Amino acid sequence: MTNRTTTAPNDDEEIFGKILPPREGYPSPDLGLMIAIVLAGRRWRSLLDERLRQMGHSASRMEAMAAIAYSPASTTQIQVAKRVGIEGPTLTRTLDMLEADGLVERLADPSDRRNKHMRLTRAGYKALGEMFDIMAGWRQQLLDGISKTDIKRNLEFLSVLLERIDTGLTSPEDP
After folding, report:
1. The model's pTM
2. Residue 16 gets which letter from DSSP?
3. Alpha helical stretches, state H, 54-147
């Protein structure tokens, strides 16, 4: 086994413009957009989490409950995980806690005993409504002064991005 030592480049000319994009003009508008989308999502979720924790909830609990509430009656746990965009085991832990709190029910699938259909309880709908009320107040503040036309146009744009991500992107190295 060869012992390799690496040293960091020691001047900006070796790094910026060769290894990394140049400092001047960084980030480019397209990269800046992607960074802003990520940061906005993270900060929004953090704001919600902070407030929802005071009620014994979290953004992940709200997302799971909303996905169940707005899905068809026979929606399975796997379908809820896909709708929320998380892995099954991660959702299972959240659902276990929601079920223990009496907010969600898992119902046996009559055609496949391995599947469970998800349903909110009356207490679950009430809790989700309270979470939505909090979110609505902040959403109103956040979007204050932005026209409905701009909101709709940006929603359409973000929907295109989500669709492209969901249908899969090829690696830039792929032919």
Report:
1. 0.79
2. B
3. 59-69, 77-84, 88-100, 122-143
Token pair, residue 158, equals 């973000």
pLDDT tens-digit readout, 47-105: 999 999 999 999 999 999 999 999 998 888 888 998 998 888 888 999 999 999 999 99
| 101-126 pLDDT tens trace | 999 999 988 888 788 899 999 999 99
Backbone angles phi, psi at 76, to 5 degrees: -90, 165
Cβ neighbour number for residue 46 with a 10 Å cutoff: 11
Residue among 42, 45, 36 at smallest CA distance from 63: 45
Are residues 154 and 92 in contact, defined by beta-carbon separation less than 8 angstroms?
Answer: no
On the question of a cis peptide bond just before residue 27, with omega within 30 degrees of 0, the verdict is yes
Among 73, 56, 60, 59, smallest CA distance to 123 is for 56
